[in-house]
Amino acid sequence: MHWLFGDQLGPHFLTPGEGGPGPETPLLMIEARSVFRRRRFHRAKAHLVLSAMRHRAAELGDRVTYVRAGTYRQGLERAARGRPVGVHHPTSQAAVRLVRTLPGVTVGPARGFLVPMADFTAWADGRDGRRLRQEDFYRWVRRGHDLLMDGEQPAGGRWNLDHDNREPPPREATSLQVGRPYRPREDDIDEEVRHDLDRWERDGDVSFVGRDGPRLFPATRAEARRALRRFVERRLATFGPYEDAMLAGDPAMSHSLLSSSLNLGLLDPAECVERAERAWR
Q1: 136 and 56 in a common domain
Q2: How confident is the model at residue 248, as a pLDDT?
């Protein structure tokens, strides 16, 4: 059995090898109420996470056992029943500590990152006491993955375009007048999630900050891919120059709004940078 956390929802978490499940391996997802009790979530975030998990479970069908439990430990005991369980290295320290204490759980390498942990460790260890600078790491990654490179040199002749990316917004403008970001449509699963959140709050079981709805960000791989395509085709060209600018009447400006899709594992970082590079070239 292979356990998928709520931020491991894309297909790249299911490919075999390096701790990944085989094509017939049964899957487990646990919706643990303790996650929302431990600290107060913004209600819109809670809605997005639960909607994404339930949508993914619906896509996986009979292959996945979806457990709603008070805690991860309770859900695992109920579903695994002593069977060995594999899981990719979680992203939070709390989850890492948990899975390492659970009997019968094997933790595989992390996925969902452009640079594996082992590669970063090797780079950091090779610094010979020099400071760990983002700029140096950024160049090392571009060379290693051949991103925006012309041979051994950066495409365009410069590594860093930060100086060019600090344009102020047009004078007296209220928006950048670029294509609108992708917005998903809610469905029955979103309605069910909202009903459950209402009930949890009404029962005093969980307390949230803020309000939710309509859902603004992708909850499925298909929605995330549409959001990526919309950004690359209509908004990427104006992102760079104005990436540090702000307008009161235009909160999104040209930003991609893809971070939630990356954080949920709906998109792989590699596909995002490769799409952006293809558009630039």
Answers
A1: no
A2: 85
One-letter identity of residue 13: F
Q: Are residues 133 and 154 in the same domain?
A: yes
Q: Same structural domain for residues 10 and 126?
A: no
What is the separation of C-alpha 72 from the centre of its chain, rounded to a whole number of angstroms?
20
Residues 121 and 256 in one domain: yes
67, 59 contact by CB (below 8 A): no
d(CA 137, CA 144): 10
Domain of residue 137 covers 117-183+214-280
Model pTM above 0.90: yes
What's 230's domain CATH number? 1.25.40.80
What confidence score (pLDDT) does residue 116 get?
94
Instruction: Name 24's Cβ contacts closer than 8 Å, sequence gap at least 6.
Output: none
The tokens for 33 are 């109420």
**φ and ψ of 206, to 5 deg:** -140, 145
Report whether 227 contacts 257 (CB < 8 A).
yes
- What is the spatial distance between Cα 159 and Cα 121, in angstroms, rounded to a whole number? 23
